[in-house]
Amino acid sequence: MAVADQDYYEALGVPRDAGEDEIRRAYRRLARQYHPDVNHEPGAEDRFKEISAAYEVLRDPEKRERYDRLGANWRAGPEASEGGFGGPFRSGSGGFSSFGGRDGFDDVRVDFGGGDFDDLFESFFSRRGGTRRSGFQGFSSRGGDSEAELMLTLEEAARGGRRRITLGDGRTLEVEIPAGVRDGQRIRLAGEGDPGVGGGPAGDLFLRVRLRPHPRFRVEGRNLLVEVPVTPWEAALGAEIPVPTLNGNARVKMPAGSSSGRRLRLRGEGLPDPGGGQPGNLYAIVSIRVPPRLSRRERELFEELASVSKFNPREAR
């Protein structure tokens, strides 16, 4: 089948209502399988041409819309002057088109001459000279960059280290996670993006870090916040209270007269700095709790306290 006559959706193995992500994943999977640099079986190169031509059209909303509407004749008519195949072809005089000098191409002129699209590939690429190794001889293009989400727990982000992940296209990769990586930060994996063409380098894969909500800690930059419940008498008299950290429990002295909302700082118990600087702090936030039910003696004591105390928080400043 000539490249121009193929069904682009069938070439990528996707339904006609496939979204951009599904089309990109299908292309990446097939391109890695049939790339001429890694697959030397008969027919692999032609299959790679089909995949590349299909992806060039289906990833572009305007070209895809024309293809869906006109089918194999999507280049014909007045619309051909708007971009033709892949965008770089532009109408010229005398039945010629120019292939503009983008992506490392030389400016050349190609006579379509009524031949099919496979002949066009041969005509163009043979102009570059050099040792012929494949139909893409002389043509080199870097693959595109791509992005995926990397979900981490707060403990995993703080600890860092190597982790094995599986991407949506089925690939499994080993990732080095910097200790203290933060939500929204990107981790670059060089050469793990979309494959290049004609021996060109692959693009990069960027992993966007997303932290799962933690049942206990909140994150503010590199600092951690945790609520610590205390009794009224601990808050009034002062006490040494346990405070959870990412590395276990610590004990902190709470000053007498502490009210709800007071922050007790534990220096250096926050998230590490990936750049090697000072780690963040952990702040224990005091939360005064009263007994849900009082014993007779507890009630007597609270009543006695109420009768002798002159403290009124509504008047305190």
Mean pLDDT metric: 79
| Helix and strand run | HHHHEEEHEHEEEEEEHEEEEH
- What share of residues is helical? 10-25%
Number of helices: 8
**CATH fold category name of the largest domain:** Helix Hairpins
By CATH, the architecture of the largest domain is named: Orthogonal Bundle
The CATH homologous superfamily of the largest domain corresponds to DnaJ domain
Query: What is the count of distinct domains?
Result: 3
Q: Mind telling me the CATH class of the largest domain?
A: Mainly Alpha
Looking at how many chains there are and whether they match, the oligomeric state comes to single chain
List the strand order in the largest sheet: 9-10-14-13
Radius of gyration in whole Å, from Cα? 32 Å
Task: Report the sheet with the most strands, covering strand number, pairing sense and barrel closure.
Answer: 4 strands, mixed
Report the span from N to C terminus: 85 Å
Label the overall shape: elongated
User: Can you tell me the residue ranges where pLDDT is under 50 for at least 5 consecutive residues?
Assistant: 77-137
Q: What is the strand tally?
A: 14
Beta-strand portion reads 15-25%
- Helix/strand-derived category reads alpha+beta
